[in-house]
Specification:
The protein is α/β, with parallel strands linked by helices. It is built from 13 helices and eight strands. The strands form two sheets. The protein has a five-stranded mixed beta sheet, covered by helices on one side. It starts with 10 loop residues before the first helix and ends in a 27-residue tail after the last helix.
Length: 302
Amino acid sequence: MLNWTPTADHAPLYYAKSKGWYTEAGIDLSIEAGKGSAVAAQRVGTGGSDLGISDLPTTIQAKGKGADVKALMVIYANSPQGFYWLKSSGIAGPKDFAGRKIGNPPGDAARLMWPAFAKKVGLDPASVTFVNVSPQAKVAALKSKSVDIISDFYNEHDLKAREFGADLGFQPWRDAGVNVYGNSLIVNGPYLAKNPAQVKKFVAVTQRAYAACVKDFEPCLQALQASVSGLTPDNQRDQWNRIKQLMRDDTTTKVALGAFDGQRVKADYELVSSLIGIDKPFDPATLFTNEFLDKGVRMAPN
């Protein structure tokens, strides 16, 4: 189960499926659109889906609520989260968010992680009002001023820059001290225990697919468009160029594409624990594994 509706960051999955890589590995893959990281983590945690994609802090919270999940591969080594607003609305930065309306979907990871961001920038988490806005309606909501701020992934930054020009305000979370791991491939615990060889094959194909799309995105874009309607090619290319930046850090370039750094996972866990809370604390080392990754496949350094 995906974290959201399919876009450029999911293209490698469609590419590998179109090439028959999953079938060759003995995997009958069904890709299901999602409704937020929280829904994906819950679905995988209860066994409704074998595997899924979820923002890591959301996965931490879900595991603390009893979801039996483990992260296998990080897609966004840097947080893709950001807030956007119009400078003409009188907002100069996050400290001006108090009393304003933020638009995003109810299952959005940014909404779940808002208390952590707010406390990092010195805001009372209760000082804003969240308004339910679908992913497709965010830009329109900001343009119509039905909300003052929207949260969105850095992937679609170029689309907003073209729409609003110099009036666009932007605060990436990673520059505000909240550079947590983003979207990650997760697996249901019992499924992993029963099917480790199958999971290893799935991770190998998926890692290979992301590496192939980093090298040449065009075939991946074609595969995505063949399965998903309503996507603008240039927007997806812009997204992928941003996504490559988010995929790249010291660990993914030097250890393996998709590899987690244990100290960063621990820091993310401690951030969620201290600023949001975890219902049932657990050892963060049990949250992830790098054992299924091919160390010979690394993220391109530039």
